[in-house]
Amino acid sequence: MAKGAVKWRAIAESVFPADARFVEPPYEPGDWILFVSWKLGTDPTRPNKRSKTVRVVVSEEAVEDYERGSAGERLAADWRFERWLLRRLRGFDPEHQAPLGHEPQAEAWVIETVELNG
Length: 118
What we know:
Order of helices and strands: HEEEHHEH
Distance between the termini: 22 Å
Largest sheet: 4 strands, mixed
């Protein structure tokens, strides 16, 4: 498991809507990935319609640099990760027109080492 995985997931859970569903594939060395979606509640004919899925990705290089950082550097990176997620979420339109029974295309949000680790 990536050193930041537990912290990054906790940050994501605090940023996304309260009813969001989080799916974290088994970690293998490389990128850290988290899939997130939530019920939209905007379509009376589809009360359980979910948002487009967000694929949050911390690049392999960012993971490795984070793991090499001191506790203080990781704390600062966690703060940057939270701010980055908040900015991305503010500009995100979760609505989609995928027909019932079809998954809308996931949107990838990739954070690179410069953005995460400074």
